[in-house]
Specification:
The protein has one domain: NAD(P)-binding Rossmann-like Domain (Rossmann fold, 3-Layer(aba) Sandwich). The chain contains seven helices and seven strands. α1 links the parallel β1 and β2. Helix content is 41%, strand content 16%. The longest helix has 29 residues. With 249 residues, the protein is α/β, with parallel strands linked by helices.
Length: 249
């Protein structure tokens, strides 16, 4: 088996199975989703920033291709869709889990980092959404699921920048859901509360400690995403908020 930076296998055949594209797959929720779907027999095209982790994930998932890189790079979203179609022949569902978290009060926040967060959380999510939905429209069917956040509905005094990106994503998805409501194309947002991922790795004290919360696990979110995909096509669940018990927000 020979793999390049896209994790392709020489002579790979197009799989006649359900095909999922998963972003943010080199850590946290995205990795859990890619692994869960792969173990259930999906073919998965995974995207993330860390190629070593994606390579290791491919050793654990039977039919997984991958691309390592930054979705904010010009043409990255287009390449991801094209690679998935080239490898597997089609795409059935796209789960966007790529995202960053930048918080802080006015005198504390890194404004440049916050603007980079906006690029991945909003710009890339918008670009991927429109590209994927144009493809699904041609096929007549498909599922687009964004991993949002409870902060898409709530806000904290130091979390306005991050919450703003999630509010934007929620608004986009609601409009897109309405646009495709009379088709077999479904658009959904899954909005977890506190989850044990690397999103808070730069904080001196993890919120689970400072707020005394037993967080969700990435696998909890992956299970919910799988449940959404498994829903009969006549059922669309546009918004699903999931909180760890005890998360008062």
């Amino acid at each position: 088996m020979v793999a390049d930076d896209a994790g392709r296998r020489d002579g790979a055949t197009k799989a006649a199975k359900t095909v999922a594209v998963v972003t943010g797959a080199s850590s946290g929720i995205g990795m859990a989703i890619a692994r869960t779907l792969g173990r259930r027999g999906f073919a998965v095209m995974a995207h993330g920033r860390r190629g070593d982790r994606l390579r290791a994930l491919a050793e654990d998932v039977a039919d997984l291709g991958w691309i390592a890189g930054d979705l904010t790079e010009k043409g990255a979203c287009e390449r991801l869709i094209a690679e998935a179609i080239q490898r597997f022949g089609h795409i059935d569902c796209v789960i966007n889990s790529a995202g960053r978290n930048q918080t802080g009060l006015v005198d504390e926040i890194d404004v440049d980092a916050a603007c980079e967060m906006v690029r991945i959380n909003v710009e890339c999510a918008y670009r991927l959404s429109y590209l994927v939905l144009r493809y699904f429209k041609q096929r007549g069917v498909g599922d687009l699921i964004h991993i949002s956040s409870v902060m898409g509905y709530k806000v904290r005094e130091s979390g306005g920048a991050y919450a703003g990106t999630k509010h934007a994503l929620e608004a986009l998805c609601e409009a897109l859901r309405m646009e495709f409501a009379r088709t077999s194309i479904r658009v959904s947002c899954v909005a977890p509360g506190l989850c044990r991922t690397e999103l808070h790795r730069d904080q001196a004290i993890h919120p689970s400690i400072s707020r005394n919360i037993d967080p969700l696990s990435p696998t909890d979110v992956a299970d919910v995403v799988t449940w959404l995909i498994d829903m009969p096509k006549r059922i669309n669940i546009p918004k699903l908020v999931m909180l760890p018990q005890g998360h008062v927000i």
